[in-house]
Structures are given as C-alpha cells and as structure tokens.
Amino acid sequence: MKIQLLSVVILLVASGGAWTQEATPAPAKMDSILQRPNLWETTAPDLQPDFKALRFEWTSTTQDTARTAARGLTFSGRPLNEALLRFHEGKLSEATLIYFNRGDAGELGEKAFENLLADITAALTTLTGKPPIERGRNATSAVRAEGRTWDVDPTEYLLEWSVTKESRARGIPFRAEFIRLAIHPKNNAPRAIGAATPGNTSREAVKRFAGRDHIEHLPDGSVWLKDVPMVDQGQKGYCVVASAERVLRYYGAEVDQHELAQMANSDATDGTSPEAMFASMKKLTSRFGVKTKSLYDWDFADFLKLIEDYNRATRRGKLAPEVQLSGQIIDVDKCYRQMNPDIYKELRLKKTADFGKFQREIQQSIDAGIPLLWSVRLGLVTEKDIPQAVGGHMRLIIGYNTTSKEILYTDSWGMGHEQKRLPAADAWVITNGLYALQPIGS
Asked: Please, what sign has the CA dihedral across residues 384, 63, 104, 299?
C-alpha cells in the first residue's frame, strides 16, 4: 500500500512564515547611518539613537553584528527586507542590505525582478554619482551570483543578485532568489558575502581552519566551541540553511542563508530537508573544501517501528491509548500528539547502543573543533523560552559536559540562543538526525 505523508518525519520547519509589510509602515531610513561622514570610524555607541529608531538588535552577546527587519526599512528610497551591520575592533566594518529575498518577500516574477534590479541600480548610480562597473558572475560564490560595483573612495558598493533560471526541458520555472548590497571600506575591509578576493577564497580560508584553536574548557567541566557565529534566520523556516551558514562561516567561508536556500530549494514555510541541504553541499566540495557526513539518520521506517513498539507497550501495561493510524495518509504531527511523552522517552532510551554512539560522536566532533548539525523534534521534552514549541527543527551542537551529562547547543534565533544546555538523555529523545559538515582532511 502506498503511504502518502502529510508531514514527513525529518521535514524541518522553523517558527513563523514569510515576512509581510504593513500597509503604512513607519519610516525607517538606513541613510541616517550609511550617509554619515567618516562612516568607517563610526562605533556602536555613536549609532545608539539610530539603532533605537531602526529597531536594530544584536544577534549575539559578542555584539559584532546588529540586525533589523523593521517595517518600512529603506535605503536611498528603496525598501529593504533586512539590514545587517558588522563591527570589527569596535568600528563599523560592513553593511549588508537585503533588498529582496524569496524567504521573506515571497515570489517575484521575472519582469518584476528585472525592474526592481534596474531601479536599485539607478538609485545607487544617483547616490554615488558614478556609473556601475560590471563584475559579472563570481565563480567562487555558492551560487555564482551576478554583481556590479560602485567605487566612491573610501567606500565600495557591491550589488549582487541571483535567480534560478527557467528550464522548460527540466520543468524548472524562473524563480527570483535575492538582491543584496554590501557596503564596505575600499581598503583593509572584510570581504562582502560571496565576494572573492584574489588569494583569499573561501576554500583557502577553510583549508587553514584549525579546529582545536576554537575549543574552550569551562570551569564546570564543559567543553565547547567558543566562537561559532550567530545567524538569525528571521521569521521563516530557514533553520537548516541558517545553521549551515553558521558552520561554513565558522570555518572561514563566505556564504549566506539565501544562497544556500537557493541551492537546497528551501521554502519559507516548509523549511528544508537535510537530504536536500547535503546533496547541495556536495556540489560545493571543490569551491568550499568541505565534506558532508551523516552520523545518525532516523527515517520514516524507524518512526513506524517506534509506533509499533509504543502500541505494544501501551497494550501490555494499559498505560495510555494506542496511536491510531488510519487510511492512506499518515499525519506525523498527529501521531506525536497522541503519544505519552514518558512512554516515548522510555522507548527511545532503551536503544542504549544508539544513545551511547550519539554521545561518542558528539564528544569526538567537539574535541576536533567540529560543530554538528542536529535535527530534532520539538515538543517531546520541556524547553523554555523558545519561539517554536513543536515540530521539526535544526540546531547546532557546540559542546558537551560528561560530568553533568549535558550537551551544549545553539539555535539560529539570535540573541539569547548562543549557548544552551539540555540533558543528554533528553537530547537523544528528540533527535531525528546528526550530521557533520567539516573541512576536507579533518
């Protein structure tokens, strides 16, 4: 009998849906920051009034990146989905403005995309007083984004965009992906996202990565990776691609979640499956110098076997009603809602060999400086202060403590989610998959 899945076990869905703009948003002009004199001498305290007005928030306690997705956000009169400000040694070092991304803004037709790109190009030409220089496609970026630049000493503006081109032969429709602008000082600047610098490609940066340099031993016995960068996925189901971006940035690669979403065919509501993400990453082995490895993968057959074991346990002890499967459609969410959490946890923990392997894989990876992508099912154990209460989700495991029997992890939800802890037993109970994305040779 053919089974149609209403909700696949490993489908990863983050909180919230696509961002929609209010009918009459309050003005929120990025010009107040980016048109300042001596821009690259600006410090975060200098920008506090603008931060408040534009609703910027730090993405982590390191305060190296501030983000806003305020309604009505604009630059040079053109609306933005999002803006990021990065700081280095206390000073503003780069601004990234997202004019359009599919995850937040939804679909955009080909003609509308071309018109938007032309309008932004014209606005930047007027702003800088110079015509753009066509860069062409960047062969070292994840999606070979197109680009053009404006050089206005001491600042460079880099406009990049990408689309999925229509292919009638393969049944692929046109799809607009993103338009972004990186603004940075002309000299001694960090690279813009996806912008390769001669002799400093993402692959070469990843090749120089030394995992053990990133390990910190805490007084309580915890071992963790101290500097995994934070990425805030925003109000869309991009937990998988945001997590992958964080790992790649940790290794030194230049990439963002919108590029990875294009590669993995991510959906703002339905998220991304790990299989799609890792199939995409295999295509980037030569460009980024990373490899993928599945350490544990819990598939639908495992889920059905668990239901069978669960129902057998309830019949034997009459502890709870059985999980009912009816018809040809299996609603996974409904199945989970029918389960008694204590019985479910007991059944998962009976697989002591798998639980032991899970803990060993974590310790070995962290001891090598490698964070792990961790696919989980939320709602099976109690967790406080998280924006998503139930459903599939992707996290990063960044540490462990054998004394307290805990794992240390992080969610791609911004400030407050940089380092959290969960008993290892609870972590195993909610696990759907464990994956490594690591430099070749490590």
From this structure: negative
What is 129-173 written as a DSSP string? TS--EEEEE-TTSTT--EEEEEEETTEEEEEEEEEE--BTTTTB-
User: In CATH, what class is 204-299+349-439?
Assistant: alpha beta
pLDDT at 412 over 70: yes
Q: Which pLDDT tens digit goes with each residue over 13-42? A: 333 333 334 445 566 899 999 999 999 999
- The span from the CA of 66 to the CA of 350, in Å, is 44
Per DSSP, 58 falls in state E
Place of tokens 């703002």: 268
Cis ω for the linkage preceding 173 (within 30 of 0): no
SS3 239: helix
Lowest mean pLDDT of 1-10, 265-274, 322-331, name the range.
Answer: 1-10
The CA-atom distances, in angstroms, between 239 and each of 197, 221, 299 are: 29, 29, 19
This model's pTM is above 0.85? yes
User: Can you list the positions of beta strands (E) in 186-328?
Assistant: 215-217, 223-225, 290-297
| CA 433/CA 174 separation, integer angstroms | 32
Outline where 274-414 has alpha helix (H). 274-282, 285-288, 300-317, 332-338, 341-349, 352-367
Alpha-carbon separation of residue 102 from 4, 163, 175 (angstroms)? 28, 10, 9
Name residues whose C-beta falls within 8 Å of residue 222's C-beta, 6 or more positions apart in sequence.
399, 400, 401, 404, 406, 408
Instruction: Return the SS3 of 279.
Output: helix
- Decide which of 283 and 214 is more confident: 214
- Cβ burial 375-391 (10 Å sphere, 16+ → b, else e): bbbbbbbebeeeebeeb
Where do the structural domains in the chain lie, given as residue ranges? 20-195, 204-299+349-439
